[in-house]
TrEMBL record, chain A:
Gene3D superfamilies: MetI-like (1.10.3720.10). One of its GO terms (cellular component) is plasma membrane. Residues 75-263 form the ABC transmembrane type-1 domain. It is found in: Cell membrane. The chain crosses the membrane at residues 12-36, 79-103, 124-150, 196-220, 241-262. SUPFAM superfamilies: MetI-like. It comes from Caenispirillum bisanense. It comes from the Bacteria. Signal peptide: none annotated. The lineage of its organism: Bacteria, Pseudomonadati, Pseudomonadota, Alphaproteobacteria, Rhodospirillales. This is Peptide/nickel transport system permease protein. GO terms for biological process: peptide transport; protein transport; transmembrane transport. PROSITE patterns: ABC_TM1. Coiled coil: none annotated.
TrEMBL record, chain B:
Residues 6-257, 278-526 form the ABC transporter domain. CDD domains: ABC_NikE_OppD_transporters. GO terms for molecular function: ATP binding; ATP hydrolysis activity. Belongs to the ABC transporter superfamily. Signal peptide: none annotated. Its main location: membrane. It comes from Caenispirillum bisanense. This is Peptide/nickel transport system ATP-binding protein. One of its GO terms (biological process) is transmembrane transport. GO terms for cellular component: plasma membrane. Keywords: ATP-binding, Cell membrane, Membrane, Nucleotide-binding, Transport.
């Protein structure tokens, strides 16, 4: 089973490239303190150093901080926020969607109308409002991103649960006297995970973009270095010093692209119909 | 020369690498002459559809290719023709009808427009001429009010009506050859009979050659003039219908014919003893479809005043067409649906009045076997777990439940190693055995079998039916056997209840129902059994009566 999965995943070249980029980003995040032991906020050299200069490979910013150090440390925040906010969104979305899809009827109606309420408000605006009301700390940013991104997951989980609930193996579980909890967690959930995992992997990418956008607007956590903040801070001098916003921008682009590629690869590997293509 | 329309010589179709066998079809030779109906018979996966698709140029390119042989239409090889030539042949001279009438029509086009399409492409009739022809065709295939029906969308038609539209479409250009790929498999018996009659009448009228693909020898007996039997991509026997049906030579043909379900006359009548195990008393169930906050939905009556009893050790068959409410009845008894009215007494306790919690103890006693062997097993659980989950839910220690699961696997004729595997590694028949093992795990007294064999090939059907019959005798089980096929019911049931539109119209011993049907609907159903006029050769009949079937466990 597992070997089949990797085989199917590896058949998608892009997905493997994406996985490699992601591995690099994760290594940066984990070993940031070893690669650049000094704080990324420290002024390490003269301001406005272009890339490939002596003590700053990717140049320095308006205050002489090392851009490369900023990117390596920023990977941490980006990944942290991307992953935790997706996890929180999964928790909210899948729970609500599962309950709605499993029970149907009034409960389904109530939960879905609640979900639609969130879907009518533009994501980013809501996130900005939430962060502006609460203080911009990492925890609050995570919560804000999670709150704006769970509705699609809820809809997806609901659809899966509705379809699976009427499948015969679920009915067989009912007739053999298994409890509701067992049925939801042992019978239905494992079978509905594939599309949820795929869309969650894409959601990490969206979360990273959202965080960058918030930081760009100055609504990021002021205590941590992040890619969005770096671009935001450099925007006033973009004509004199392109590298200040260019490299963090590339970092965001590559990470989001990698996540999308991985998501697509997961989709190929987990969707048995697609995976079988070419063989049947 | 002039009489042979289609001459397939040594046709070989290769499957892509990694498939279970290198060739889907290997060295098939067959001919279809004018006024002939050639039935191609075989189990699923025997390559019968592939043969037809190869002739029609419908193989899934580029994975499946013809690698050898010829298919001559009036002496010209179809396989080497250009795409354009093939196309004109396909639309005009060779037509095809498919198995699934539900998906073969475009839901966004009216029926008339769809038939008109091929007229537009292949004939030079003007608009009025085409319209007249469409109406004529619809009338030909026996559809009511063709002028009105022409403007209907497919969703308004029943399965049988759609199949008629498909036939009308195929006949639009008066083809010489009609290829029918299991055109009646998805239909009810009564509709099946009508469609078979229609195909036969039209064939005789237009002197067409027909290639009819089926897995059911009953249908063969009904319609064929010639028969070809296929197994694993090879044609094992070919001959006239008379010769094949009454004196089959190849062992595989004999196996297939022996497997055709039929009424076993010497079965003893069931003796009702003691209190009824289950008694349904005026059970009603109505479904409310659609509708919502402000709209009113449709109502479908699936059961009205259903009364029936099952005694210990008795097998009661519920027979009816799709939509007659027979499954709903079964589901009400196992508690998957809640009846709206009436009582279902199990050993004197009314199940309808119980809520979920108080119903639970009864789940052990009443178990269900489902129709679709591919949907009824959780694909992510191992077979042993699937079987053991019920007992574990009722508090049995895991290790003990798993041991018991292995025992049950042996009981249903599967090797013990099956326990550690996943459902997708098994064939349909084997999966159905696993389903049976799961139902037996809770040591039930009553089993509701909802069409347990209708998704299986005929030969596998027999094995599963034999298994069910043997197990219920050995364990003294009662069974409610739901099926649309009277022949199948005849094999396992002591008592048969015939259901129509939510009402039981007749209930009697199997013998009485078959030999002395009272209700007109029962008679209609009996008449519709395909191959009723055909007597299975005596020596093959005897094989079934002995109760031993040498194919058991080998093929499943």
């Amino acid at each position: 089973m597992n070997r089949d999965f990797w085989k199917a995943f590896a058949r998608n070249r892009g997905a493997v490239v994406g996985l490699a980029i992601m591995a690099a980003v994760v290594i940066c995040a984990l070993f940031a303190d070893l690669i650049y032991p000094t704080s990324p906020w420290e002024m390490s050299t003269i301001p406005f150093q272009p890339p490939l200069s002596e003590d700053a490979v990717l140049g320095s910013d308006t205050l002489g901080r090392d851009i490369a150090a900023g990117i390596v440390h920023g990977a941490r925040v980006s990944l942290l926020i991307g992953l935790t906010s997706t996890a929180v969104a999964l928790l909210i979305g899948v729970t609500l969607g599962a309950v709605a899809g499993f029970h149907g009827g009034r409960i389904d109606d109530a939960i879905m109308r609640f979900t639609e309420l969130f879907q009518t408000i533009p994501n980013f605006v809501l996130a900005v409002v939430l962060v502006a009301i609460f203080t911009p700390t990492i925890a609050n940013i995570v919560i804000a991103i999670a709150i704006v991104s769970w509705p699609p997951l809820a809809r997806l989980a609901r659809g899966e649960f509705m379809a699976l609930r009427s499948r015969e193996f679920v009915q067989a579980a009912v007739t053999t006297g298994q409890g509701t909890g067992t049925i939801i967690f042992r019978q239905i959930l494992p079978n509905s995970l594939s599309p949820i995992i795929v869309s969650a992997s894409l959601m990490v990418a969206t979360a990273i973009l959202l965080e960058s956008s918030l930081s760009f607007l100055g609504l990021g956590d002021p205590n941590v270095m992040s890619w969005g903040y770096m671009i935001g801070a450099a925007r006033t001098v973009i004509r004199q010093a392109w590298w200040m916003s260019f490299f963090p921008g590339i970092a965001i682009l590559l990470t989001v692209l990698a996540l999308n590629l991985v998501g697509e690869g997961l989709n190929d590997a987990m969707n048995p119909k697609l995976a079988r293509k070419g063989r049947a | 020369m002039s009489d042979i329309l289609l001459d397939v010589r040594d046709l070989t179709v290769a499957l892509p690498e990694g498939a279970e066998r290198p060739n889907a079809v290997e060295g098939i030779s067959l001919t279809i002459g004018k006024n002939e109906i050639l039935c191609v018979v075989g189990e699923s996966g025997s390559g019968k559809s592939m043969t037809a698709h190869a002739v029609m140029g419908l193989l899934p390119k580029p994975h499946v290719k013809v690698t050898g042989g010829q298919a001559l239409y009036r002496g010209r090889d179809i396989l080497t023709m250009t795409e354009a030539e093939q196309r004109s042949l396909r639309g005009g001279r060779i037509a095809m009808i498919f198995q699934e009438p539900m998906t073969a029509l475009n839901p966004l086009m009216t029926v008339g427009d769809q038939i008109e399409e091929s007229l537009k492409a292949h004939s030079d009739l003007d608009k009025a001429g085409r319209r007249a022809r469409v109406v004529e065709l619809l009338a030909d295939v026996g559809l009511p009010d063709p002028e009105h029906l022409r403007r209907s969308y497919p969703f308004r038609l029943s399965g049988g009506q759609r199949q008629r539209v498909m036939i009308a479409m195929a006949l639009a250009l008066e083809p010489d050859i009609l290829i029918a790929d299991e055109p009646t498999t998805a239909l009810d018996v009564t509709t099946q009979k009508q469609i078979l009659d229609l195909i036969r009448t039209l064939q005789a009228e237009k002197e067409m050659g027909v290639m009819f693909i089926t897995h059911d020898f009953g249908v063969v007996a009904e319609i064929a003039t010639h028969v070809a039997v296929m197994q694993h991509g090879r044609c094992v026997e070919i001959g006239t219908a008379e010769q094949m049906l009454n004196a089959p030579k190849h062992p595989y043909t004999r196996d297939l014919i022996a497997a055709v379900p039929h009424y076993i006359e010497h079965r003893d009548d069931f003796l009702k003893q003691g209190e009824a195990l289950l008694q349904a008393d005026k059970v009603c169930k109505t479904f409310h479809l659609g509708g919502g906050f402000l709209r009113k939905g449709r109502q479908i009556v699936a059961g009205r005043d259903i009364t029936l009893t099952i005694h210990p050790g008795e097998t009661v068959g519920v027979v009816g067409e799709s939509g007659s409410g027979k499954s709903t009845l079964g589901r009400c008894i196992v508690g998957l649906h809640k009846a709206d009215g009436g009582r279902i007494l199990y050993q004197g306790q009314d199940l309808v009045a119980l809520d979920r919690k108080r119903f639970r103890p009864f789940r052990k006693d009443i178990q269900m076997i489902f129709q679709d062997p591919y949907a009824s097993l959780n694909p992510r659980h191992k077979v042993a777990d699937i079987i053991a989950q019920g007992p574990i839910a009722f508090g049995e220690p895991r290790a003990k439940a798993l041991d018991r699961a292995r025992e049950l696997l042996r009981l249903v004729g599967l090797p013990e190693q099956a326990a550690e595997r996943y459902p997708h590694e098994f064939s349909g028949g084997q999966r159905q055995r696993i389903s049976i093992a799961r139902a037996l795990a809770l040591e039930p007294k009553l089993i509701i079998a909802d069409e347990p064999v209708s998704a299986l090939d005929v030969s596998v059907q027999t094995q599963v039916l034999d298994l069910l019959d043997e197990i219920r005798h050995r364990l003294g089980l009662s069974m409610l056997f739901i099926t649309h096929d009277l022949r199948v019911a005849a094999q396992v049931c002591d008592t048969i209840a015939v259901m129509q539109k939510g009402v039981i119209v007749e209930m009697n011993t199997a013998r009485e129902v078959f030999q002395n049907p009272q209700h007109p609907y029962t008679r209609t159903l009996l008449d519709a059994i395909p191959g009723r006029g055909w007597e299975i050769p005596e020596d093959l009949r005897a094989r079934r009566h002995g109760g031993t079937h040498d194919g058991r466990g080998a093929v499943a």
